[in-house]
Write a structure and sequence with these properties.
The structure is a homodimer of 119-residue chains. With 119 residues, chain A is mainly α. Chain A folds into 2 domains: 29 residues, no CATH class; 88 residues, Arc Repressor Mutant, subunit A (Orthogonal Bundle), CATH 1.10.10. Helix content of chain A is 58%, strand content 12%. The first copy, chain A, has a 3-stranded antiparallel sheet with strand order 1-3-2. In chain A, a hairpin with a 5-residue loop joins strand 2 and strand 3. The longest helix of chain A has 20 residues. The relative contact order of chain A is 0.13. Chains A and B meet through helix 1, helix 2 and helix 6 of A and helix 1, helix 2 and helix 6 of B. The structure holds a DNA duplex (30 and 30 nucleotides). Chains A, B: InterPro entries: HTH_HxlR, WH-like_DNA-bd_sf, WH_DNA-bd_sf. Chains A, B: This is Helix-turn-helix domain-containing protein. Chains A, B: Keywords: DNA-binding, Transcription, Transcription regulation. Chains A, B: Pfam families: HxlR.
Chain lengths: 119, 119
DNA sequence: GAAACTAGTTTCCTTTTAGAAACTATTAAA
DNA sequence: TTTAATAGTTTCTAAAAGGAAACTAGTTTC
């Protein structure tokens, strides 16, 4: 779930391939960018708040993705001593640095769709 | 293999989710960014040149990914009337616009690794 | 005529990813 | 006392992704 080791060393640009792999493994999948985007917009949110905001996500998936994001220090998880207990998730400062990358992903996607549709 | 339709309409920001999905579906997977990056560096390349540059890719995977990139107008495929026939793959102008996005993916990946390693 | 190069395709198999449904356990409200 | 909310976990299943090996088919070199 953390950073992976390289298995073969072929080119002198291994560090670039490694950086691509690190980033893409964190952002790939159906829900991870949506989770980060939701926390960017909504700030601190509880588990069920996230679940409701992310229309259709299964609790298992949300739980697993949140754990992976926490291991990678993009979010923090804080258990509140309320009754019933609540758990608050927030982006770290490091997690917030994904803001501009996600914005560029959105922008390229828009440009791309225009390119494909208008032929 | 082309652009997907939305199935549900939940928020007013559907176009953003759609743009993220479009971009990530094109870039996700083990080889696609590597193929694009190889063509960015190497310019026009033949099938076997690409296969050799992309250490370890199976011909089936390379063939499938190239078709998907072609459908999305990121690359062109040109059959040359040589003997034996050769096939040349190049990035389109649209494909080349991924350059800066990939650069940012690499940069974020480097920053991230430092963040994780140095605690 | 056999081997090798071109660019793939086909088949089979394993791994990864995701979803649905049911369940745990604590607490509070009606 | 039943219902509902909190935050998950467990189990089972389906679909997607990826890899290995063999094969096609035309041409060229040895």
């Amino acid at each position: 779930m953390g950073l992976q080791q390289e298995t073969s060393l072929s080119s002198e640009c291994i560090w670039q391939l490694r950086a691509i792999k690190d980033t893409m493994e964190l952002l790939s999948g159906k829900w991870k960018i949506q989770i980060i985007g939701t926390l960017l917009r909504g700030g601190t949110m509880r588990f069920m708040e996230l679940k409701r905001a992310l229309n259709g996500i299964a609790p298992k998936k949300l739980s697993n993705d949140l754990q992976e994001l926490e291991v990678n220090k993009l979010i923090t998880r804080e258990v509140k001593d309320t009754k019933p207990i609540t758990v608050e998730y927030s982006l770290t400062e490091h997690g917030k640095t994904l803001d501009s990358l996600i914005a560029e992903i959105i922008e390229w996607g828009c440009t791309h769709r225009k390119e494909i549709i208008t032929g």
